[in-house]
Specification:
Helix content is 14%, strand content 47%. It is mainly beta. A hairpin with a 2-residue loop joins strand 8 and strand 9. The longest helix has 17 residues. This is YtkA-like domain-containing protein.
């Protein structure tokens, strides 16, 4: 039994002695939080009822254009109403406003774990 204990202790000393004691460090940039998304909505200042207009969103992350957002939604509602409708799009949306009013257009963008939204108004006369 003594021989077995000495053998075990010897192996333990050899294994501990062979390790260099250094832990592998992760590069600093993996600990850095991703840059925020920036959404710039591009709308006409005015439009006529029943006129088809193009709504678009320019999405960037830092200096880079985002072309791989997992989801982009345009939310369109009359300014004085609480309910609106969500319309999926990929950075642009052709939309026809039916009645004269001021509309709020909000764009929701998701990329990975990030979510950003921006809102602008358009007047339909």
């Amino acid at each position: 039994m003594k021989k077995l204990a000495i053998l075990f202790f010897s192996l333990l000393v050899i294994l501990v002695g062979c390790s260099n004691g250094k832990k592998e460090e992760k590069p600093a940039e993996t600990n850095k939080a991703p840059e925020m998304l920036n959404v710039e909505i591009q709308l006409p200042d005015q439009a006529e009822p029943n006129e088809k207009v193009t709504l678009s969103a320019k999405v960037t992350q830092g200096e880079e254009k985002v072309e791989d957002a997992s989801e982009v939604q345009f939310e369109i509602r009359k300014k004085r109403e609480d309910n609106g409708r969500m319309v999926n799009g990929k950075y642009t949306l052709a939309h026809t406003f039916i009645s004269p009013d001021t509309y709020n257009v909000k764009v929701h963008v998701e990329k990975g774990e990030l979510h950003e939204h921006q809102q602008e108004s358009v007047e339909i006369k």
